[in-house]
Amino acid sequence: MKGLAYQLKSVRKDKFCIISFLLPIIVAVALHFTGGIDLSSIAEFHFGVLENDLSAPAVSWLERYGTVSIFKTQEELTAEINDPSTNVIGVKADGSNIRTMVSGDEIDLFCQTADTLPLLYAHREMAEQAEVTYLERSNIMEGLQNIFIAITLIAAMFMGCTFNAVNIISEKENGIDFVNQILPVTQSRLMLQKIFVGFAGGCLSAVLTACICFRLPPERIFLMLALIILSSFVAALVGLFIGKFSESLMTGVACIKVVMIVFMAVPVFFYFSGTGSLLWMLCYLVPSNAAFEGIMNLAEGGKQVIAKDMLLLMAHCVSWFLLYLSISGWKKAPVLSMVRIR
Amino acid sequence: MWKNFCSLLKKDFQIMVDGKFFLISLGSLILYTLFINFGYIRFVNDRLYNVYLYDPCGAFEQADKLIHPVESMEELNAALSTDTNGVGIDASLGVPEIILYVGKEKVDHHRADYALSLLQPGGKYTARITGTNTKELKQRKEMCCELLFIEIVAVGFLGIASVLFKEKQMGVIRVHGVLPLEMSLFLLSKMTIFLLSDLIFAALMAVLNIGPWVTAGILPAVLLQTAILSLLMALTGLGCAMLLNDFRQFSLAYLVIAFFVSVPVFFSANTSVKMAWIDWHPFYQIYMGLKNACFGTPVINPAYYIRCVCGIIFLFLIVQAAFRREMGKEG
């Protein structure tokens, strides 16, 4: 217990660990209190029209579907359509109908919209008479902002690896690693202490982040907590690996960076790529993928799928733990004791 | 002087080899290339909404083939609950009634109207194409540019710090104070080696991911923008490494640069969301310069290049002053 207190004290004094701990919480606060950035315009269509070309009713009709920007010349309009950062659909008058222009490099959604827009315009009167029934979505998280929240939570959960990795590397650099070898402490106990340091840091950071940016009904809070605990445990094990294989803080930071990029990029890729492919199955090899899927499913209320994510995370916990044991060697006896040296 | 410069260059090259810098860059290059060729361009796509029609009376038999017919209302509801972006049409009473899960208001209008338009037979129309890029080429250029930017801003910045902190710890900088060498050579050799490394990386990224023929046309502009970014980042990295005491402090600055600086740049440059202050963000200007170069429309505004040169000179002077201070610590 005393050893653990020393480990936690050492982490508490490390600015790098403090920043790593606070970073997801700061992002969560920013997302929560500032309301984030207005992402609604991303989901909408953007149309570009020429000044004095389309009639006012036609412009109003376009505004039902998205934002309309007016350009003075054809060159300006074409430049905006061709701008790789935008997906503007150019709309011009064509007698009583309209015609559209696209850059040709957009994803299919925008090209298909441009192809079908004149037909929609021709049938606009029929569309106005149609009856529309809207069904409520059960999804708590909305739009693209959900992904930011989920990714922030993933960062907090897996940031735990930073705490014990940096702690182990610092000990290596300061020579404390050698001192540890002659202390009357077993390697297994030392390893458990290091796991606890990463686990506690990751858990605490993730719980605070979740409290700030995630609103859940009480019955799902325990599921979220279970996801956080399992993920933080895997993160602590990842931290052990980084600490073991990094000889200097620079290598350690580079490794943490790569791990965090992979842990955040793979779930996002998985989310957008859809299901079914071999690559999709391979994504589950990254532990954050199951955690990300769990968070998104939790928000949508799919308990059955969460069970699958929990099982996957448990499998990761066991396999990472066994892998670490197999490469480090589980030793019960002290390596060297002070008594023996005397 | 040239001989001294070559010796310094050789020494820096050796430090980078020992620090596995080139190995990390090669690993990044392979990872990025695999991601672009086997991941990004294959999976990033989005199509218009699926439309499901329940039409027991057969009132809309001439409907478009894009419509998915369903046999019952249960089947229609089940289809919509799994595909919440889809649109359902209930034509059991002879007139179409649209059913959809609520989303963004304007998008919902389009979803409903699009579904209705498929019920009416209409001639095939194709929008006029005004650009020269295909969808795949755009995705390749876009991702290549983003990853190149990340590599130089994040990995290169970390690399230069790792080299310099190693030398700082070994006392090499203070030894330079008593060597009969031109002081700026020390900085120039580091900048040169990082510049060359980044230029080679940029060229390989472009050739492997955009394709050799397209790259041939855009390479000079891409290399020019890469050189500007590389010099700025190398000097920033050198400055931070000189002014900060140890790598631990540097890693905090690194976190700020890698996270808070890059995120708004990517957000503004790749989506239609524009933040009012983003034009004042220096990294945004440079990122856009790189992106425009990748898309064959390089920046021609001389003010941009003047600002870049001034920025590089300003940073160089700061780094030189920090270098003098570091050498002066020896007395």
TrEMBL record, chain A:
It is a multi-pass membrane protein. The chain crosses the membrane at residues 16-37, 147-166, 195-217, 223-242, 249-272, 311-330. InterPro entries: ABC2_TM. GO terms for cellular component: membrane. It is found in: Membrane. One of its GO terms (molecular function) is ABC-type transporter activity. Keywords: Membrane, Transmembrane, Transmembrane helix. Residues 16-323 form the ABC-2 type transporter transmembrane domain. The keyword Transferase does not apply. It comes from the Bacteria. It holds the Pfam family ABC2_membrane_3. This is ABC transporter permease. It comes from Parablautia intestinalis.
UniProtKB/TrEMBL annotation, chain B:
The chain crosses the membrane at residues 21-41, 147-165, 185-210, 222-244, 251-269, 304-323. This is ABC transporter permease. The keyword Heme does not apply. Keywords: Membrane, Transmembrane, Transmembrane helix.
